[in-house]
Amino acid sequence: MIVALIDNGSLEPAAHRNLRAVATALSRATGVTVHAVSWKHSDRIPDAQLDDTPAWTLAPFVRSLLALGQREFVFVPFFISAQGAIGSSLRRELESLQREAGAFEFSFTDGIAARGVIADIVAERIRAIIASKTLPSNPPVIVVDHGGPSPASATLRNQLAAQIRERLGFAPALVMAASMEGDDHAHNRPLLAEVLASPGFDRGPVVIAPLFLSPGRHAGPDGDLAQIARAAESRIPSHALRCHFTELVGTHPLSVLTLADALRTTLSSLHAPILP
Question: Domains of the chain (ranges plus CATH)?
Fold first, then answer.
């Protein structure tokens, strides 16, 4: 039984390093060897930026283990939600590999969203940034996801924003859901840039809570989200808009604990002889 923590993949070393850190934490929490595997992209990161250890991507990883006689795989999805376009595409690729490389079995554990902990994590992140930056007790908050072609992702984003608002006890108008990009799909609206130009969110301190698991091209210190925020801050200097970003979902200890519990549940259902 091969277990892998899998994310979408990134060209940013920080994203894959975080994937490895979470995989290591899962291994420690469960007593199971958990490999860090990206669906795409990460194998193009120079080895020197990953401690001279190349990043695995899905197809080469599976093929290499099939060549060694492995036939059972469990994947732990490191996505906000595994139910959107990425999750469907990932399953299709694994089914294609089954047809190409011969019979093997694969299963997925629950992801973080399925275990209902994201709202708790984000609410805690928001309280932490309010305290550390000495912000007003109820600043405007934007809960922002990437944005994509699947309405399911936007539905989850909106549900999470409502749950976060409830946990914080904020007035409805103070917590908005937005997407980073994707204005060609109506379900992604409003976009982050649009909210930062709207009344109540275009001046003073605003907290931005990214629904992202790892730092990288989008959620890194100089990533797309930060650039959108800086552009909004500079647009009308007299408004004194200042955007404060929370820490990410995937670096919170509860993410690891939740994925570890999901992995134990899946392995138990498969009768895998692993758990201590």
Answer: 2-112+251-269 (3.40.50.1400), 115-245 (3.40.50.1400)
